Amino acid sequence: MNAPLRLLNATSTLVMRLHNTELKQLDHEDRFRRLVELNVMEQCLNVFKTHVVQRRRVETFRERKKDGSGAKYTYPRVHGLVYDPKNGLIKNLPVREFLLPHVEELENIYQVYRPGKTTMDMP
Fold first, then answer.
1. Alpha-carbon span 61 to 23, nearest angstrom
2. Domains, the chain, ranges and CATH?
C-alpha cells in the first residue's frame, strides 16, 4: 500500500476508534454514511488546527475589535460538506458543534484560538 493510501486508512481507523460507540449502534449502510461524515468533520478539525488558520482567526478577531465592526465571526470559517450519491444531495455538516467540545482540550496542544479569548499571543 502506498503512503497516501496508508495515511487515509490510518485516518479512517482512528475515526472508527474515536467514534466506535456511536458507529457500532448503526446498521451497515448507516454506519458507512456516518463514518464518512465523521471523517470529514475530523478533517475539518485538522484544517482548523493549522497555524495558518489559527493565525488568521486571531488577526480577524483583532481587526474586528479595533475597528468596532461588530462582525459576528472570525475568519476563516471551516465548513464540511458530504455528497450523498444515493439521493444527489449535499449535506452541510455541523462542524462548529463538532469542534466546540474539542477546543479546550486542543487549546493547550495546538494553541487553538477561541473567540473572546484575547490572552493568546500568536505570532
1. 37
2. 3-110 (3.40.1050.10)
